[in-house]
Amino acid sequence: MAEVIKRDPKKAGTAEKAPVQKVKKEAAEAVEEVKEEKAAKTEKPVKPAKKKENATGLRIGAAILWLCALACEVVAILVYVEKLELPLPWTPLVKTLVFLVLDLVFIIIGSQLWKTANHKDPVSKKNKLKFWLWNNMGVIVCALAFIPFIIIALTDKNADPKTKKIAAIAAAVMLVIGGLCSYDWNPMSIEQKTEAESVLEGYTLYWTSGGSRYHLDQDCQALVNSSELVGGTIDEAISSYGKDFLCKFCMKKHLDEIDGLENLVKGANVE
After folding, report:
1. Cα-trace Rg, the chain
2. Which of 54, 64, 111, 123 has its CA 20 to 30 A from that of 188?
């Protein structure tokens, strides 16, 4: 008579589950490996921050360029009123316009250097008039570099009406362009810098070569198209690279973890 072998149901269930659990574990490990490989491929190289030119050097450069701009204006006036003859194969009007264009170029480049210096080494905004004048020095110089010429061109009784009109309109257009390029639309104050340093002391921040924002995360969505990042402290971000504001995506992500982040984004009013 054949012997009947009875199987323990508990042992049988355990034996059947073991292969399934093993497969699940292997699948989970495979998913983790894929994630790690993907992260390794997408991770961007981060260069350590380096100390760059200081604000004083930038301001000296701006002053020199602005002096060159004023010199070009003087030459343009002398050529326009025919008090200066230059050995160039152009009419007095063309010579005048050439020097006005050089005037504009020197103004714009000088103003960019000045604004960069002010963002690296900001002043206090407690005196609002002084704060505005200091940050928009380029606008003042631009006015000095074109308004005197416009007045002389319009009041010159000996000039040809057509020449007078062309010269005055050209100078006025350059005045507007230079003023808009020289104006600091988002000035940095020492109060903002102090607030940022107190909130983000000890944190490693990330930024790109362009733009004016720094980030708390390498994988911030605003950095998705950036191939290389720079990493450093908040002082290096502001003083060496002129990065003034925290990225709004990073602010929203870490707002519950770090107090005061809402004061570091563009448009925040820090007194």
Report:
1. 32
2. 64
